[in-house]
Amino acid sequence: MKKRILAALLASATLISIAGCESTATTSSTGGTESTADSTAESTADSTAESSTEESTGGDETPDPAKHIDKMTLAEGEGTHLNIYVWNDEWKDYFETYLKDKLPDGVTYDFTITPSDDGAYQTKLDTDLPKNTQNTSDPIDLFLFEADYCTKYVDADVTLDVKDLGITDEDMANMYKYTTDVVTSSDGKVKGLSWQATPGLFAYRTRIAEDVLGTSDPDEVQEALSDWTKFNDVAAKAQEKGYKMLSGYDDAYRVFSNNVSAPWVNENNEIIIDDQLMAWVDQTKDYTDKGYNNKTTLWADAWTADQGPGANVFGFFYSTWGINFTLAGNSLETKTDKGGKLEVGNGEYGEWKVCYGPQSYFWGGTWLAAANGTDNKQLVGQIMKDFCCNADFLKDFSKVTSDYVNNDSIMKEIAADPEYGSAFLGGQNHIALFVDVAPDISMDKCTKYDQICNEKFQSAFKEYFAGSVDKDTALNNFYTLVIEAYPELKKPA
Amino acid sequence: MAQQVAVEKAPTPKKKGGGIGKYKKWGYIFMIPFTVVFLVFQAWPLIQTFYYSVFEYFRSGLDYIGPNFVGLDNFASIFDFSKVNIFGLTYNTLVMWAIGFIPQIIISLLFAYWFTNVRLRLKCLGLFKTIIYMPNLIMASAFAMLIFSIFSDIGPVNDIIKIFNNGEPFRFLDYTYSTMGLVGLMNFMMWFGNTTILLMAAMMGINESVIEAAEIDGANSGQIFWKITLPLIRPILVYVLITSLIGGLQMYDVPQILTNGTGGPNFTTRTLIMYLSSNISGNPNYGLAGAISVVIFIICAALSLIVYYGFAADKTSREANKAAKAALKAEKRRGV
Fold first, then answer.
1. A24, A448, A468 ranked by CB distance to B265: nearest
2. Which of A274, A374, A463, B335 sees the fewest Cβ atoms within 10 Å?
3. Which residues of A touch B141 (CB under 8 A)?
């Protein structure tokens, strides 16, 4: 009897520990790479597809992005397997919803997902891309990269000129100039394409705006938040009413960091701390000490919870993808992975609005690039052309996903459409706001060190905000962390 | 019948005198797999680590820099007091180890003593043994994630604290003592079951009659514990101490996951291996990481030697050893 109890206990303990392992594998951000199996039989039902119909209102007919994409063809001698490197499943979802069925018959694919935290995705690319030309059996064909480190792959020999893939200047004519400038190599080759532009806005809760400012009208709220002094005044008012202006330390970071006057690193490999960054530090310290925020950290559970129903935070600085991809999902009572739908009535979906905020900025951006050594040049070219240049596709794609696509004329058209509005933003036409700020974006301060510098700056100064260290110590710790990641960099003399 | 068979079989092994020689080569053959694996996967990387520790050799993005010989520059940078240096990190590591180890050894001794004490007649021993061992079955990183969620700013512990603290949570990871305390708590919970079982094995090896004799002589249970049980289990205690110390010096996953790799606040919970890992993950810096590994190797070796010579071989046996060695030497000299 005793033995049987013992056995049962041991068995359950083993089970618990296995369950424990599994849950970390999915939640832990430090995890390694995870390869998803290719699947031609996999069902097309996923969150993007499900959510699509509810997310937009207006328009003359039901938008269907996929119908604008033709069946792709396979050129003679090309491989039948696509290897795609990404850092999360955002683009994988898009691929499986819109492109998978258009692949030539018999072509399979694999996504290799490496989370981008702490530069893990960059490390994966840095390790695998230089070997790609020697990898004749199964080379990487397509990979995605982000604004924070894009310059590294542009000037290196690991990416292909998009013109070699059959993409013409005409295809890129309507793109926002900064999206091609930042991926143009020093010898004038465009090395990647983006389907989106990423201007930023300030998204706020209508119920809190009404309580604090007496109005939730975007124009009037914008008037109240149009510069940092006014923004601070509203923060003080919100605090009196028991609200927090921002969720945590890093919320306003990109508004400052993407308005810097110099890149992170100068030509002598010295790390440069721009005045804008120190302005962020001082403002955030002030907000923290005065209790204007909830002391959360970007992407932490507490931060996500502050975007959920019933939370007491006035608003969030977010760019295009953040509003339709992150904030909309977080606003739900029943999240999409629990079977919830992106619809009004589920949590605070529909009870948000956007305004310009005190300063224009951008945040993020994703580019597609063909890896040098691919055995699917022509097919990768078709995918990039369809996803980033096909105007009909992009128009419907924007309507379905609310994403801000990289095509100025389409965006202007939707901005002017009186029928169009985002259900998540209570019918507000957010595209109209983005259209105004998108031309301001400039990415000429990008360096390959940006991701690590930004991450380490936030984590080092978090301790200053929390009161664990003083400002100089935090700054020194920041230098230490960055130099550990990039030993060639130096503290400024 | 049976006898006959035995008689018939018996002579075969005796056929050739000194059968060991015949089987000798098999010993070597069976050692080959281990030796090869050891040489390829342990000895060679170890040699390389020592070699690269005197080179500037790292990767920056897509480029490699080095290897350029720089002498002891890497070591100088590890011992540089103006930066995060090896002394601070060793101190952090040992303090967090001690916070976990001291309660662990006390509780384990107590439990092991109770569980093996026949006079207490404890019921459900199997159940207790299973339960105290259970935390060790969970992967350390999973356990750290669990503790991280429980003690997070919006976790259940803070839900309780908020009731007594005007709605303000206590941010455990903002303070050195609470972060170290959590790391110690986890190490304690994960390892006290294991230690209890080791100590129980040691205590069960004590001859009952010794304890009985002590009782007859009028010793109370305290005296029996301190004067009989403890000295008799000393070899196992030393084993536990050494393995725990070496494990403690290699502490990595628990503080790494708990502090999200920062070792905060202000690097006070950064361990030696976390420092090593921050130099090898991402853009690997083989030179500096090699130098750190060499220093950790030396620290481990030194601490193990101190523990071994300080506690292990008790004085008399060490003296006996010395005497025996001296006698041997003397004998050899006489032989020459």
1. A468
2. B335
3. 24, 28
pTM, entire model: 0.81
Q: Sort B28 into a burial class: Cβ within 10 Å, 0-12 / 13-18 / 19+.
A: exposed
Options 3.90.190.10, 1.10.3720.10, 1.10.10.10, 2.60.40.2100; CATH of B84-281: 1.10.3720.10
Among A195, A243, A223, A232, which Cα is nearest to A400's?
A195
Q: What is the CATH topology of the domain spanning A200-362+433-443?
A: D-Maltodextrin-Binding Protein; domain 2 (3.40.190)
Residue length, chain A? 493
Report d(CA B11, CA A115) in Å as an integer. Answer: 70
* Helix residue ranges, H only, A109-157: 120-128, 150-154
Q: How remote is the C-alpha of B298 from its chain's centroid?
A: 15
ipTM: 0.77
Q: Which of B59, B60, B80 to mutate to test the interface with A (most CBs of A within 10 A)?
A: B60
Angstrom distances, CA of residue A292 to CA of A247, A286, A463: 8, 8, 17
Which residues 241-280 on chain A approach chain B with CB closer than 8 angstroms?
none
Substitution target in A22, A157, A477 with the highest count of B β-carbons within 10 Å is: A477
Tell which phi-psi region holds residue A400, choosing left (phi > 0), alpha (psi between -120 and 50) or beta: alpha
Q: What is the pLDDT of residues A137-154, one digit of tens each?
A: 889 999 999 988 888 899
Band of the pLDDT at B312, cuts 50, 70, 90? low
Pairing of strands A34-36, A142-146: unpaired
pLDDT, tens only, A387-439 = 999 999 999 998 888 889 999 999 999 999 888 888 899 889 999 999 988 88
Residues of A in contact with B278 (CB under 8 A): 481, 484-485
Look up residue B188 and give its amino acid: F
Which among B58, B59, B141 has the least Cβ separation from residue A126?
Answer: B59
For chain B, say whether A14 makes contact (Cβ under 8 Å): yes
Residue identified by tokens 């955030």 is A284
Q: For chain B, which residues make up each domain, given as ranges?
A: 84-281
Min Cα separation B311/chain A (Å): 36
Domain A34-197+364-418 listed as CATH 3.90.76.10: no
Structural contact between residues B236 and B201, judged by C-beta atoms closer than 8 angstroms: yes
Residues of chain A with CATH 3.40.190.10: 34-197+364-418, 200-362+433-443
Cβ of A13 and B174 within 8 Å? no
